[in-house]
Amino acid sequence: MKKWRGILARFVSVNALTQLIALVVGVLVIRGLSKDDYAAYAVFTSFVAAYILLTDSGLSGAVIGFAASSADDQSKLGGLFRTAFRLQRRIAFPQALLGTISLASVLLVLQVPILTVAVLTTGFALVCVPLANRSISVAYRRFRRDYTRLQILNGANATFRLVLVGTLTVVRSISIPALTVTTVAANALDVLIARRGMARDVNLLASFDAAVNSQLKTVYFKALPVSIGVVVQTQLVTVLIGVLGSTDTLAEIAALSRFAAVLAVFSAVVNDVGTGLVAGAQSSSRRLLRSYASVIGAFFGAGIVLTAILTAFAPLLLWLLGTGYEGLQLPLFLVALGTTGIMTADAMRSLNNTLGWVRWSWVYIPALVAWLLLGLFALDLSDVRQAALWMACQAFVGLTTQTVVLLSGARRTFGRRRD
């Protein structure tokens, strides 16, 4: 345990600094753009996040799980990663095409100027290229427990963005085109660091493994409905708040989410450390259960503490955002609490995928419908407080689904064991 405490302490400290830098960058962007422009840019960044999710959809977690069982066979390990890279590239192209068309459609529905639509859709298409194999590269680092490289990866990306956005702020040139170029460049750097040196450690020219490819595709397509649901859910928030409310309300919710996103410090711990910890505990049911509960319990507890801190310092935080964001203390609390629930569900999904627990994922659909009906008929999305409440209620969908998936997977796994 001392070893893991040391790893976690270093990892949290580095990621805390990384998220602080990301928060500073976010505040600079919010202060530098009008609400209409920030709403459009927030839609763009949400589509980039959706692309990353859909091109992975449990694939990286499955790769970590498979790699753990073939760690001593370099030939088999090389075949696994070559197969995973090839599969993800084939998945990525249609996702990029569909994402570009969908992004343009959403921006046009929100009545974003055509020139801005062209810039953002072009930027999205460009950023999809380096991101096509990012999650598998990062999965390799997680499997090897190369936490130093993962820290460098996160730190370099955040620092690069800070330098670029800081420069744009100083010269008063923050704009949609400049920020789009910054996003493309930062993600290209991200992937270069993730892939650097990997070819020396694993034979990426090993034979393609058709059996592994079939298994990975099975995991991917089983988890895909939930991933699609998460993406649809996120975009429904964007479109419905923007259309039934206003782009001002959308900008306010997106701006408040920047503070709650500090919870990504602990999300990174789950994804980069927790998945490796849980994958390595599969030999014992008790150890697996204890590891799973420890990771999720610590994550949720950290989220509650963060929510309390954001609530206590709400006036100062809203002042940092600049004019137009005053008096949003209650929406900030709701967004922070909702983000805690949403990210806890995402952490559970990451661990469930690593363990191959994906059955009963369809529960997501009725939960999503219930949440959607709440926004359409029970709440007034033009009111930022009710819009924030609806956004927070997304947590119900993810937590319900992943709890059912967890119970199903645990019953099947622990039912076969006596340890």
Kindly list the characteristics that best describe this protein:
18 helices, mainly alpha
Mind explaining what this structure looks like?
- The protein is mostly helical.
- The protein has one domain (2-414).
- The chain has 18 helices and no strands.
- α2 (35-56) packs antiparallel against α4 and α2 packs across α11 (247-260).
- The longest helix has 36 residues, at 74-109.
- It is globular and about 60 Å long.
- The model has no long low-confidence stretch (mean pLDDT 82).
Shape: globular
Total of helices: 18
Query: How far apart, in Å, are the first and last alpha carbons?
Result: 21 Å
Rounded to an integer, what's the Rg over CA atoms? 21 Å
Unreliable runs: none
Sheet with the most strands, sense and barrel status: none
User: Taking all residues together, what is the mean pLDDT?
Assistant: 82
Number of spatially distinct domains: 1
Number of strands: 0
Helical residues, percent: over 70%
β-sheet strand percentage? under 5%
Q: Which sequence of SSEs, written as H and E, runs from N to C?
A: HHHHHHHHHHHHHHHHHH
Given helix and strand content, the structural type is mainly alpha
Q: Topology of this protein?
A:
Blueprint: H1 2-32, H2 35-56, H3 59-68, H4 74-109, H5 114-131, H6 134-143, H7 147-170, H8 176-195, H9 198-201, H10 210-245, H11 247-260, H12 264-279, H13 285-312, H14 314-321, H15 329-354, H16 364-378, H17 384-392, H18 394-415
